[in-house]
Amino acid sequence: MHGEKIGPWWEIRAKGKSDGDTRTVLSFLESEVGLPSPLIEQLERVGHLALNKETASLHDSVKTGDRVRMELFPDEPYGVEPEMLDLDVLYEDDHLLVVNKPAGQKVHANDEGETGALLNALAWHYQMQGLETRVRLLHRLDQETSGAILFPKHAVAQKLLDAMLQERKIKREYWALVQGYIRVAHGTIDAPIGRDRNHATRRRVSGTGKPAQTDFRVVERFGAQATLVQATLRTGRTHQIRVHFAHLGHPLLGDELYGGPTNWMHRQALHAKFLRFTHPITGEDLEIEAPEPPDFSDLLRKVKGP
């Protein structure tokens, strides 16, 4: 359902079969916008619903041509310190944006006063647009992983995208260069992942770990030395792709933590290539591609050889 941003409000004009077609604010936002009823009820409780510019209740009638508003964009503190850093924006609208994160950059700072993280760059980006909104985190990428990462721009988008992530309605596709020759064309790695008791940050396949599933497809084989795979996450465990392929005996090139050879690359050869999902507000089907960075492209040329 397409609408229009007017100040802090998102306005939607009601369409119907005839001038006499009516429904309630609640049923309109449920059926036409796809919002869950608890979220609509929460918007009403805090006075963030309006009908034709007047405060609305859930049971007010909505007729064809009426304007239903939700206050989605109230001013909020950023939550992190804005910092002028490069930001490669792949997609942006009033509700969400997708950024191509460079390898080597943290998504968020771990220590107080630490700077240089992607969230700091995002706060600066909002500030330059004149937006005062909290920087919201939906999912993460490891510091040395590059690629597409999705951010909601307001609380309603956060809740809708969180639900979509839990329901596996956001498809996250990665490209990984792994050591060795993978014989099968495609498959699913279904192996639970838990912490490694002998290492502070490493994970491992463990019978007592959390369920983890990774679908993969071979894109190209480079003899016995390496295979390029497309990996899609069903779950989102820490280091999931890295752990799963190391468990199969095919660690990622450059991934020293999980036994990958480091002569090819000085980070794990992992890039978040695509995000595919239906926009939670507009209903538009989106496919967003993050071009691979120069070090990943260079590595592909090296393994292909002359």
UniProtKB/TrEMBL annotation:
UniProt xrefs under NCBIfam families: rluA_subfam
InterPro entries in the record: PsdUridine_synth_cat_dom_sf, PsdUridine_synth_RluC/D, PsdUridine_synth_RsuA/RluA, RluA_PseudoU_synthase
Chain ranges of the Pseudouridine synthase RsuA/RluA-like domain: 95-247
Keywords per UniProt: Isomerase
Pfam families: PseudoU_synth_2
Organism: Tumebacillus flagellatus
Active site (catalytic residues): 142
Chain positions covered by the region annotation Disordered: 287-306
Domain of life: Bacteria
Protein name: Pseudouridine synthase
